[in-house]
């Protein structure tokens, strides 16, 4: 996507890169659960992937953070709610 610009962008934020307490954390889905990304280069790659996604829009962007599902441990609301709260807290309007 490097160099690609789009008029309008919709990004769905998943639990692979989430805000937790005071910092961002990277996760990888393996087998049937999320695991922490511990290697610095993989964390950097994941952070940069979201940076690239968030810098492609020329006119506007919608970021969708799913609500999670309490019945599915791989999509727990605790994975998504802090990210939603962070984005709202920095001034992104909620639609």
What does this structure look like?
The protein has helices at 40-53, 77-89, and strands spanning 6-12, 17-20, 23-30, 33-36, 57-64. The chain has 95 residues and is an alpha+beta fold. The strands form two sheets. A three-stranded antiparallel sheet has the order 2-3-4. 7% of the residues are buried.
Secondary structure: number of strands: 5
Any idea how many domains? 1
User: Strand sequence of the main sheet, in spatial order?
Assistant: 2-3-4
Structural class: alpha+beta
Q: Compute the gyration radius: what is it?
A: 14 Å
Largest pleated sheet? 3 strands, antiparallel
Mean pLDDT: 93
Number of DSSP helical runs: 2
Termini separation (Å)?
Answer: 26 Å
State the low-pLDDT regions, or none. Answer: none
Please tell me what the overall shape is.
globular
The portion of residues assigned to helices is 25-40%
Sheet-strand content, in percent, reads: 25-35%
Sequence of secondary-structure elements: EEEEHEH
Task: Classify the oligomer.
Answer: single chain
